[in-house]
Write a structure and sequence with these properties.
homodimer; 411 residues; alpha/beta; Alpha-Beta Plaits; 6-stranded mixed sheet; 5-stranded mixed sheet; 17 strands; 25% strand
Chain lengths: 411, 411
Amino acid sequence: MNADIVSIGDELLIGQVVNTNSSWIARQLNLIGIKVNKIVTIGDTRQEILETLKESSANSNIIFITGGLGPTSDDITKPVLCEYFNTSLRFDEEVFSMVDQFVSKRGGTMNELNRGQAMVPVSAKIIKNKIGTAPGLWFEKGGVIYISMPGVPFEMEAMMMESILPLIKDQFQLPFIFHKTILTTGIPESKLAITIEKWEKQLSEGIQLAYLPSPGMVRLRLSGFGNETIKSTISAEIDKLKMILGNAIYGYDSDTMEIVVGNLLKSCNKTLATAESCTGGNVARLITSVPGSSDYFRGSIVAYSNEIKTNQLKVPIDLINNNGSVSKEVVEFMAINLLDILNCDYSIAISGIAGPTGGTIEKPVGMVWIAVASKDKNVVSEKFLFGDNRDRNITRASVAALNLLRIYIQE
Amino acid sequence: MNADIVSIGDELLIGQVVNTNSSWIARQLNLIGIKVNKIVTIGDTRQEILETLKESSANSNIIFITGGLGPTSDDITKPVLCEYFNTSLRFDEEVFSMVDQFVSKRGGTMNELNRGQAMVPVSAKIIKNKIGTAPGLWFEKGGVIYISMPGVPFEMEAMMMESILPLIKDQFQLPFIFHKTILTTGIPESKLAITIEKWEKQLSEGIQLAYLPSPGMVRLRLSGFGNETIKSTISAEIDKLKMILGNAIYGYDSDTMEIVVGNLLKSCNKTLATAESCTGGNVARLITSVPGSSDYFRGSIVAYSNEIKTNQLKVPIDLINNNGSVSKEVVEFMAINLLDILNCDYSIAISGIAGPTGGTIEKPVGMVWIAVASKDKNVVSEKFLFGDNRDRNITRASVAALNLLRIYIQE
């Protein structure tokens, strides 16, 4: 079972938009055992679209097409598909009423352009778009399936997850693949590779290991091939890995650090608040990105100026003057005070130098102090030295802060 | 002058790595007037590489190839290029000594694998790699140029900037292209298209328009071809567009809403703070993602529980009980109080129902109230109705809040 991915959009060819859609689709296909032969990115050009579809259909069973389905004049995918499949457009009542509902729910009214979204190719099966106006289109010709989806990532992703992948799994007998991802944090990739080298070497032939690093964490994906029995083999391998890595493993598969920490708080019925300086509210944002987080998250004081540290968090000005605001003393004080100020069971406090400026020889860009406190246990704190990239420093400090809390609760 | 980009690597076809190289190359080529026809991503497979190069050479003058030049056995680009160009490998003294220096500088010693990096195709011109071990290769055949580069982004980028782009600019007379992107917010794509339909139709033939939507905003890209005079034509078209869209235009090109708002605050030497409920600190995070934001951003109170609204933001409990915490009355109170509490010139307050739960018929998921206040002007507030996706509601509420502040300051 082979697939091609065809991304359509002039904006991709001038590099204005990074083609994350094709990687996302490739990842999903890989997970269910469909091999991607080729990813082709072309412009909103009739001739290119026609030629690319023809070429791809010679080598692949399924062609995933994204982009060019919008309501405006530069979106030409739909008419070109009609030409390719030698079909015409028809008006679809159901799509019209979905677009109508979508538009009116947002306080808009139907106009020529979004009415045009209800015109669909006669020979296509319609894939509903619950969160946008362009429906997906499913064609079959000469034993090849062509699936055309909008280029807006979240619309395409929802369509794939809710409709297209289930349809493909129904229609085809796919090989058996089982994936399990182990989420680790706190150990850099190269050190991790050495730490688990012996374990990796003794993995059986039917199991593949992949390292997936991102700022502050490395995911280890185990893929097992064959049949159902590989599941217990992988489970036994993970038990061995737990003995080696201990609490550097924070979760599995689609867990995120904020979900793991949220579940821990929920299970012990405790609340959390944060006092953030260099992360600027990013830890609060991560925690509140989880639905239902209002059950355990009380709030945050983002103290981007020292005045807020002294006025809101009641840090004595002398403590800041003597130690600097990026110090063990200040973050521990912030964390302890926050427990009463925001009336929470656990607190996180962060202060650091995100960069690119503000560093000194003693306290360089990338230095971050993080403290965690609770009403029942002693405050703990740790100093981190990240790199010189502002975005990555904020991300890594946020992950490290949530991880410090995770270990603090678990121990 | 046309180019194809060919990315080689199995990791790209399983979605393990997002292909940022091709967007980066496309962006650089676009800037110097080279049109990218097609971006093709294939695996480390001899047959695929040979076929793709043959096909691309039929349509393009230059082919940029990345990936597969590493020292390990899965990297086959170099031998396959030798086959394609009917040439063999030779030992290159200069490359050898560069690799040797590179390796020993990092405390390593030369081994079989990195010694192999000094073997280069006889018919290729060598492009030095100052920050890695794989040199770039420049071939010419049948009037087409083929440039093979390593897949490590920073090695490829350095090679392009220092050697390859200057060589191309020397060798070819490139056409003139000028791009200008207009950033709009607050008008959905389909309504925007109708609003500017007449303007779009009167654009001269040498100018192309593209719509680039993302949550809460639509970017309009104008591309002009011909010569330098197109710049003033585009500038005049933008002036007309300003008359139509007014303050729905918030910036140009690489601006972001948080940069625009930051520049406004800097230019009037004013400070800002936020009081956030449903956005959970995301507005603070956006503002502080901009280097130097500590000059104008004081901080935030993320009031995820009503208790923090009453205790920290001093909102009377009766006001919440009578109006609900998602109401005009409460956000205006929060915004006004914040001015004194965090001692700032401008304030933003946000309260809403991000979802997926917590909605009612009167106040559905996606309803968000936003207020902006200052010490000199009246408080203003606005009700928004977004959708039912938590992440996008948070994103759109954050963009809307910054936009409300932008308009408030500008008026």
